[in-house]
């Protein structure tokens, strides 16, 4: 693969412009407790990247194709890397309001299926390398993360336990049942609609799955979706402090008077206790393998190793 220089030129160079310093009054930022908080999160990511880089022999250079999760708002010079199962539907709605030039005013007026139509938002991979360079260097870049195993269980519950997600049942469920269920019924082999969490985790840690290609975005690691060791994000928001962090972002780009992040009061959301219950039926070996798979996300975003885990 031909070496693509744009990531080194615009992200990793020490002299690249920091959008927070450039766009906002440094004195105000220094006085802001939130700014200090977000700086600590950025430092955590950088420290984890340094440790990973020192221990890894892999030297990977990104290509424009790696940037398909980075949504661009030209009017507000904003880049958002979306991570499925981390309020990305509402964030896409907000980005549609920001980029719509008056077409939308309330994010919740936008149907959820419309928020996921690819043509409704422009992503960074659609630009030339020179344009990518410019935007990575000058725009405010942010992402939102979530406790990795809560996000994993949330993805499982959404994609494998709800009847309307038949496309996931057909695409992934049938393959999982065929590989990991002994004496599977013909109906299960045909529809893949009743995948157990243990079967799903067997699929994730199976080397054959890695050979099949990248994981689906709903259970792919944040490290692989957003490339935080290559792209310097100005803000790392967390699902656990979603509204506070989201409205802080909107305040930084100067739209907090007219636009607020949708309130989130979903009673069916995946909790830590629920995640612990799902993991209780997973073997110690598979728990260890799963932790290794998502370890960088735990380290980069300062999530503690779950107390319910039994690790080898």
UniProtKB/TrEMBL annotation:
Protein name per its UniProtKB record: Carbohydrate sulfotransferase
Lineage: Eukaryota, Metazoa, Chordata, Craniata, Vertebrata
Source organism: Pleuronectes platessa
Keywords on record: Carbohydrate metabolism, Glycoprotein, Golgi apparatus, Membrane, Signal-anchor, Transferase, Transmembrane, Transmembrane helix
PANTHER family, A to Z: CARBOHYDRATE SULFOTRANSFERASE, CARBOHYDRATE SULFOTRANSFERASE 11
Listed transmembrane segments: none
Membrane topology, as annotated: Single-pass type II membrane protein
An example Gene Ontology CC term for this record: Golgi membrane
EC numbers, comma separated: 2.8.2.-
Catalytic EC class: transferase
UniProt signal peptide: none
Subcellular localization: Golgi apparatus membrane
Family: Belongs to the sulfotransferase 2 family.
GO molecular function: sulfotransferase activity
Major localisation: Golgi
InterPro entries to which the protein is assigned, alphabetical: Carb_sulfotrans_8-10 (IPR018011), Sulfotransferase (IPR005331)
């Amino acid at each position: 693969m031909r070496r693509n220089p744009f990531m080194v030129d615009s992200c990793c160079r020490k002299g690249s412009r920091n959008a927070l310093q450039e766009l906002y009054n440094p004195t105000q930022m220094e006085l802001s407790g939130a700014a200090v908080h977000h700086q600590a999160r950025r430092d955590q990511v950088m420290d984890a990247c340094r440790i990973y880089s020192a221990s890894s022999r892999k030297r990977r250079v990104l290509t424009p194709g790696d940037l398909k999760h980075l949504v661009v708002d030209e009017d507000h010079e904003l880049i958002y890397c979306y991570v499925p199962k981390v309020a990305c539907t509402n964030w896409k709605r907000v980005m549609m309001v920001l980029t719509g030039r008056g077409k939308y005013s309330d994010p919740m007026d936008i149907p959820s299926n419309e928020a996921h139509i690819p043509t409704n938002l422009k992503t960074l991979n659609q630009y030339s390398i020179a344009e990518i360079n410019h935007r990575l260097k000058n725009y405010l870049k942010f992402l939102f993360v979530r406790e990795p195993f809560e996000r994993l269980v949330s993805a499982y519950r959404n994609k494998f336990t709800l009847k309307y997600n038949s496309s996931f049942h057909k695409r992934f469920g049938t393959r999982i049942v065929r590989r990991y269920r002994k004496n599977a019924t013909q109906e299960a082999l045909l529809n893949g609609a009743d995948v157990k969490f243990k079967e799903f985790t067997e699929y994730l840690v199976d080397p054959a799955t890695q050979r099949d290609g990248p994981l689906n975005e709903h259970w792919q690691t944040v490290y692989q979706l957003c490339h935080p060791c290559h792209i310097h994000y100005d803000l790392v928001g967390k699902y656990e402090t979603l509204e506070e962090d989201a409205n802080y972002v909107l305040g930084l780009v100067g739209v907090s008077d007219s636009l607020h992040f949708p309130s989130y009061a979903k009673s069916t959301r995946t909790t830590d206790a629920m995640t612990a219950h799902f993991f209780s039926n997973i073997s110690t070996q598979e728990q260890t393998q799963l932790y290794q798979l998502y370890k960088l996300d735990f380290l980069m975003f300062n999530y503690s190793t779950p107390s319910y885990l039994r690790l080898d």
